[in-house]
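User: What would this chain look like folded?
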Amino acid sequence: MVETRTVGPVPVSASRRSRAAATVTRIGLGTFTGFIGTSPFGVRLARRTIATLMRAFGSMPMGTTIEKVDARGVRGEWVYGPDVDRASDHVVYLLHGSAYMMCSPTTHRSLAARLSEITGLPAFVLDYRLAPEHRFPAAADDVDAGWDWLIAQGYDPSNIVVVGDSAGGHLAAAFMLNRAAAQQTLPACAVLFSPVVDVTFGLAAQQERIRRDPMISAARARRLVDLYTVGADLGDRRLTLHYDSAADCPPVLVQSGGAEMLQADARHFADHFAANGGVVTSELWPEQMHVFQALPRLGPEPDAALRRVREFVIGAFEISRATEGAAS
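Assistant: Here's the prediction, encoded as structure tokens.
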């Protein structure tokens, strides 16, 4: 189980390292991504590039162990941070980004391991199918299958934390809202890191007029996500989020960066979720880039943000236990 520790507030300014990292990223990666196409070669290049960056700027805690899963069509990895109890009855269900066509449990091992270490919980990272090889609703179907598999392993829904970053944040939000609408079992809480909310990237494009994202343009990001959504009905509740069931959802923590275009998506989600009766905590971290929590070598903010995740999870489990106690 997680242990309570006091954490400070969200900082009002960014560290020098993170500000410098944003500048360098804008000059380097931000320019490079403008030339990456969506041809098979472009997809391979994008996947290699993001995998290299995640390795370079991630940080794997010593003593982390990995266990591969390939069972009944569900693929992924168990990630156990140092000294984490493998027999814990509480678990993190992690849905990785990026853009529905990049990344994997391997690219997100550092983030999963640090989440596991700081929360004291095992993390299961789903290896969902990617576009363009597998288009909508492949990823959403895999998220449902991964959840069902966890429940079949004996985990109580009220002991599961769903975490998603970027496109994984979109998957997590849609999963939760749609399960609530169908009156199905729900996790104890959800944590969204820089979630994609609008798959057309219209919100991001509006934010981009105020400030350019250091990593990628809204137009380029949409072309990547289009590899997944092409031919799909964007009105589908698994693509366009519907907030009518927010009041029945568990609490949600949303973290985004002040330097990224998807801060607009994060605000939109938080505003609409709360307006429909949901309980949401929204944090905007000054000058931070997209999914900064996965890049601890770029500054102190990623670890500080994960400490706030830990406290949020502790509170959510306490609420979940109290609710179950009252119901019984």
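The chain has one domain: 16-327. If you want, I can go into more detail on any region.
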